[in-house]
């Protein structure tokens, strides 16, 4: 009689050297490998945060991932040139935390990060790090007011590694509802320092900022870090290639201020560039909306539309060659 190996469900808590570490319901952690049916390169391969079904064959030192369950939310790196397949980096998180240094906010990048964060389907929070580098609380407020149109004041937090209370405010947000948070932001913004403070010990290596102001990447594995105050965090160092890909929903959410005004434009498909009766341009003229914000919005929408066209062309070419699907 063939013994059917036991099947259990777990969560991928760490991914390094290709063998996912899976945490089972009872808290045990087990190294696993993928079943051969989960083809290399397919999106069925498990990533951090994935819920998986694993079998435990007798006499085998690893579990076998038989199935990756559907993802509630996911962070996907997409190559706008279409040369590489989209790559899922993390799954099933509740909150994306975007870190930007308060003394050197990169507005363009922040807008892009917001689009990508909203595109995941999770809640979004912006953390302004190194608040101690500002001369006064008034200056902090000044910066905050400058970008609160981007996310709303209640989704904006100033934090410093010299201000334990500021870190605890973030810890509380993550703990509420037992959330899993994903932390993104360019290298050197203070992500590792933040994780260490949330954990209460130096588990992440921090980087000395180089002369050019950029840190180096030190973390290589992706893992879910369980926080003593509740909830979990995934540090995503150096997410490069923040390419957009049909990001209309993300753009809509990241620029909800503009989309609200656009509801009053005369034409439903108004591009807010030269149409008569455009409420958005009127808002810029009256000073209710920053001109740069409209520029960013138009630029990102164009980028998203171009990527969509390019991808559709690539698909047409592939199907004409008789390869409707990619083979691997
Ligand atoms: P990561 O690359 O995003 O992980 O950034 P790190 O956590 O390694 O921090 C980069 C540099 O910024 C290090 O030299 C930290 O000591 C410094 N740093 C981090 N947080 C703060 C902060 O709140 N205030 C100040 N002044 N420096 C900080
Ligand atoms: Zn318009």
Describe the model:
The two termini are 36 Å apart. The chain has 328 residues and is of the alpha/beta class. The longest helix is centred in the last third of the chain and has 30 residues, at 291-320. The strands form 2 sheets. It has a 5-stranded mixed beta barrel with strand order 1-2-3-5-4. The chain has a two-stranded antiparallel sheet with strand order 6-7. The chain has 8 helices and 13 strands. The protein is flat, with a radius of gyration of 22 Å. Strand 12 (222-226) and strand 13 form a beta hairpin. It binds guanosine-5'-diphosphate and zinc ion. Guanosine-5'-diphosphate binds at residues 129-130, 132-133, 160-161, 187-193, 206-209, 215.
Query: First CA to last CA: what distance?
Result: 36 Å
- Flag low-confidence runs: 210-219
Whole-number radius of gyration?
22 Å
- In DSSP terms (H or I, runs of 4 or more residues), the helix count works out at 8
Q: Provide the helix percentage.
A: 25-40%
Strands, total number: 13
Outline the secondary-structure elements.
Blueprint: E1 6-16, E2 19-24, E3 29-34, E4 51-56, E5 63-68, E6 74-77, E7 87-91, E8 95-101, H1 107-119, E9 123-129, H2 137-151, E10 156-158, H3 164-175, E11 180-184, H4 191-199, E12 222-226, E13 232-235, H5 248-254, H6 256-262, H7 279-285, H8 291-320
Parallel strand pairs: 3-5, 8-9, 8-11, 9-10, 11-13
Antiparallel strand pairs: 1-2, 1-4, 1-12, 2-3, 4-5, 6-7, 12-13
Helix pairs in contact: 1-5, 5-6
Task: Put the structure in a nutshell.
Helices cover 30% and strands 23% of the residues. With 328 residues, it is α/β, with parallel strands linked by helices.
């Amino acid at each position: 009689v063939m013994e059917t190996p036991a099947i259990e469900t777990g969560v991928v808590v760490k991914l390094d050297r290709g063998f996912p570490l899976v945490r089972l319901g009872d808290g045990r952690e087990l190294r696993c490998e993928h079943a051969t049916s989960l083809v290399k390169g397919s999106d069925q391969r498990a990533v951090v945060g994935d819920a998986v079904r694993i079998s435990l064959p007798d006499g085998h030192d690893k579990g076998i991932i038989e199935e990756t369950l559907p993802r509630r939310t996911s962070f996907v790196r997409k190559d706008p040139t279409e040369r590489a397949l989209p790559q899922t980096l993390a799954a099933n998180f509740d909150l994306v935390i975007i870190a930007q240094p308060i003394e050197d906010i990169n507005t363009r990048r922040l807008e892009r990060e917001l689009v990508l964060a909203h595109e995941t389907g999770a809640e979004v929070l912006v953390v302004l790090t190194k608040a101690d580098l500002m001369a006064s609380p008034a200056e902090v407020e000044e910066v905050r007011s400058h970008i609160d149109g981007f996310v709303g004041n209640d989704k904006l937090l100033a934090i410093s590694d010299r201000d334990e209370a500021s870190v605890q405010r973030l810890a509380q947000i993550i703990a509420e509802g037992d959330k899993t948070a994903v932390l993104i932001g360019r290298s050197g913004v203070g992500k590792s320092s933040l994780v260490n403070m949330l954990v209460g010990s130096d588990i992440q290596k921090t980087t000395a900022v180089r002369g050019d102001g950029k840190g180096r990447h030190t973390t290589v594995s992706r893992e879910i870090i369980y926080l003593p105050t509740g909830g979990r965090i995934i540090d995503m160092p150096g997410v490069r290639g923040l390419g957009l890909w049909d990001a209309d929903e993300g753009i809509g959410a990241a620029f909800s201020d503009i989309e609200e005004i656009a509801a009053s434009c005369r034409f439903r498909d108004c591009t807010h560039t030269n149409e008569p009766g455009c409420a958005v341009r009127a808002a810029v003229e009256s000073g209710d909306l920053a001109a740069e914000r409209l520029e960013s919005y138009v630029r990102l929408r164009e980028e998203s539309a171009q990527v969509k066209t390019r991808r559709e062309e690539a698909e047409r070419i592939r199907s004409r060659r008789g390869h409707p699907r990619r083979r691997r």
